[in-house]
Amino acid sequence: MIDVPALARRAPARTLTALRLRMRASELWLIALSVAVGLAAGVLAVLQARAAHGLQQLLYGIGPDDRLSAVQHISAFAALWLPIGGLALGVFTWLARRRRPNPLVDVVEANALYGGALSAIDSAIVCAQTVLSNGVGASVGLEAGYAQAGGAAASWAGRQLKLRRHDMRILVGAGAGAAIGAAFGAPLTGAFYAFEIVIGSYTPSAIAPVAAACLTSVWAADALGGARYAIQIHAARTPDILGYLLYGGLGLFAALAGVLVMRLVGAADRLVRASPIPPLVRPAIGGVLVGALALASPQVLSAGHGALHLDLAVGAPLAVLAVVFLIKIAASAASLGFGFRGGLFFASLFLGALLGQIYAGLLDYTPIPEHLSPENAALVGMGALAVAVVGGPLTMSFLVLETTQDFAVTAATLAAALIASTVVRERFGYSFSTWRLHLRGETIRSARDIGWIRTLTAGRMMRRDPQTMAASATVAEFRRRFPLGSTQRVILLDDAGCYCGLVITASAYGENVSPEATVAGLAVSEDITLSPDLNIADVMHLFETTETDELAVVDTKGQVLGLLAEAYVTRRYASELERQHLDLYGEGRD
Fold it and tell me: Do 428 and 536 belong to one domain?
């Protein structure tokens, strides 16, 4: 008799297994999955934007088409919503940390270290913190929440289908990039955000999945009527050769400003952490500071989308632009340093537009015959400063292209962005996403996959059955037990069974070695051992510096765990690099 309920239970499992096999064997199925991820990313981006803007409407009384940073002024009573919202965020974060004590992993860290694995619960917490922070008016953007939600949706789908590590990283990058593309209505910007910021490289195998996800997300956001981060700045005129040189100078100033922003945020974070202020109330105090700055200029509120267009439309004086530029930096540093959650993507675009206008205005007071239009300078400064802070020269250049459809201004932006990127990389070395991880003790500088290096530890690579012998034994005993050719090295143990050196077997057969002597006198590498948690890069460095061929792996108590040879480590490292190379070009599928 056929067990119908049992068959019904097994049917989904069989379907999932079939999908897994197809995903591993065919890139077309990965593209199809990317389309679904792009759809989810677009929907989640719209939902977050509406939630944050709805909260701003409720608290500050702005209209559905208004932007908080574009209001003329806010009252002292309205400014109280910042510390109140900060206190609510502090309570929420405190409750979340009781259940999730480990640091929350973002998409860049997940792709760099964990093969794209993102916790859905942790990501939901990050998104809620970001929406609340932006919704109460803190000087942060929603882009971190967008990317986190898109990446988490991709990671969940990838885990269900048990994707291989390389495919998972591509899918997570596609999800995060699709969310950014949906926010700006710019699929190329989203695609290159995925390549440059989240995946960390341009890979032929990633182009189609990322493009499919970004195009789908933009379509989904438009279908839902999502309000884009539209940057309505029109290029004034095509720059000439001197104009390109002047825009290169703007790229240099943008690099310096970007490093200043990141260092101020880091300094604020360190000072707050070192202070006796309880974490529960830190966002509330940050809200007081941001609220005080907002009384001077509401343009510091939220990410600054409305203020960006307002300043260009009214043609603000240089002094006003400079003041807004400085207090916006202060507000962003206070917001992030005191515990508000969010990103600096759009804030850096706003700051860059201000910097570009200031730069163009100052050039008018010089004898240089070329005058830059404020519109063009705002566009170039916007891209250059965003590259200095966030990274991604092509990401920001395509954002300008999709905004203006002007290739000449886009080329000027790319030139300035490359200068800014080079200066920041040489003199600072981090983007904002990796700078925050650096402050936490990580060493990654991009989303390039180095997680495999950390997983290949001495404990995983060692030979677990090394030959051992008591250090008090005589050379004669050693010769009887280990004839020439039987083994290359023997580990010596003291009376407590702990490591006390290595003996090269051939050294015990030297002409001048007395059979009655103890083998302890032949020991080498007595003080050089490997810890089982050392990664492959550290192991190779230790072999190189000590000029040894084999080393013992011991625990903290001195107990021998195994033996590791330099030749094996080198072969394993080369094998992993070859696998990475095959994955890069999409040749690693079954």
Answer: no
